[in-house]
Write a sequence for this structure.
């Protein structure tokens, strides 16, 4: 039997989706759909497919060529990974779904109920609402690509239906805003740990953690910084291919080094074109292992970016100035990384009675670059 569904688009136009199902004893043996601009075209296609599927040979051919969701995910990865150059998190999530039991489902007969059951199972297994919503996002991406590129009779709209239902049932949701900043004691313990470790390790984690706190750079950005992009006169550098939701490739942007970050950079040996020529995965793993060993709970390397951004505001920099260090495009993005501590805010001295305004007292953290033993002074400022 066939069904025609009309759906309004954002521009006001109506599209008609023809859905053809073949049932035997209450079980769906085959399902396919296609969307048209006109209702008459949808009806004509549905009738044609119903007649064609009455031939057992056609049904056998369709079922033999029916891909599973895992096969579509693998096709999507193999086809678009090298072109799109997406982030590691997307790759990891796609490969997880490929291995998951849901991946064994026939793509043509996949329903919103199947996806809702998958979400329920994942939540019951301990996955958070923000993690599970990514499952639906990437499944939708794969199904839309399969329908538009390969013209397969899959139905991406089941993802929208599942997201709506899961949202109403509070099974999915946005990630909670993190406000975790390392304490002075935690930083001291990490510094002592890495100081002893770095003498026999390839990656200088003490300097990298120092630099992350001083520069507000992500671990992937730290490992992509190049010596040739540094400008000593302006104390600036460049992050190539800055993270962006739609335009990462070629999004090269200059940023300002803090005095502490610049001192740490100039102290590094120039053994490569990169300032920190290391694998960001290894840096993240080393940091996580150290936190576990030291009993530091719920601290991630990315939290150092929160710490660095918050310190910039506590020093007295304005929003537009902080953005020159962090490279955030808007205040809505920047405030996610801002978790100020009242005790660290600088004092603003009010105007005197005579009308002359006193100059604000500088915070100790906003002082001029340290002199003498630069590296040791920088470390004292960063870790305490």
């Amino acid at each position: 039997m066939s069904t025609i569904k009309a759906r309004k688009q954002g521009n006001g136009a109506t599209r008609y989706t023809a859905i053809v199902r073949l049932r035997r004893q209450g079980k769906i043996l085959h399902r396919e759909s296609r969307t048209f601009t006109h209702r008459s075209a949808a009806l004509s296609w549905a009738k044609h497919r119903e007649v064609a599927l009455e031939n057992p040979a056609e049904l056998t051919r369709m079922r033999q060529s029916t891909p599973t969701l895992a096969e579509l995910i693998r096709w999507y990865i193999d086809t678009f990974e090298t072109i799109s150059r997406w982030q590691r998190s997307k790759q990891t999530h796609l490969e997880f779904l490929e291995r998951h039991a849901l991946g064994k489902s026939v793509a043509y007969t996949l329903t919103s109920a199947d996806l809702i059951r998958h979400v329920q199972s994942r939540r019951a297994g301990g996955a958070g609402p923000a993690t599970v919503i990514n499952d639906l996002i990437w499944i939708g991406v794969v199904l839309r690509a399969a329908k538009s590129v390969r013209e397969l009779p899959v139905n991406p709209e089941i993802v929208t239906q599942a997201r709506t239902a899961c949202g109403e049932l509070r099974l999915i949701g946005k990630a909670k805003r993190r406000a975790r900043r390392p304490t002075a004691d935690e930083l001291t313990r990490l510094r002592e740990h890495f100081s002893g470790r770095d003498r026999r390790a390839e990656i200088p984690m003490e300097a990298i953690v120092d630099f992350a706190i001083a520069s507000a750079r992500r671990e992937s950005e730290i490992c992509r910084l190049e010596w040739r992009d540094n400008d000593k006169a302006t104390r600036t550098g460049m992050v190539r291919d800055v993270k962006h939701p739609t335009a990462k490739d070629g999004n090269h942007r200059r940023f300002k080094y803090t005095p502490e970050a610049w001192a740490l950079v100039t102290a590094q040996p120039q053994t490569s074109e990169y300032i920190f020529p290391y694998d960001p995965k290894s840096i993240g793993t080393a940091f996580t292992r150290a936190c576990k060993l030291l009993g530091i709970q719920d601290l991630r390397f990315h939290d150092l970016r929160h710490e660095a951004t918050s310190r910039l505001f506590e020093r007295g920099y304005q929003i537009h100035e902080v953005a020159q260090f962090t490279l955030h495009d808007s205040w809505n993005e920047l405030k996610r990384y801002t978790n100020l501590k009242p005790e660290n805010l600088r004092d603003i001295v009010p105007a005197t009675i005579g009308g002359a305004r006193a100059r604000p007292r500088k915070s100790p953290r906003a002082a001029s670059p340290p002199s003498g033993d630069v590296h040791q002074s920088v470390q004292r400022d960063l870790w305490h």
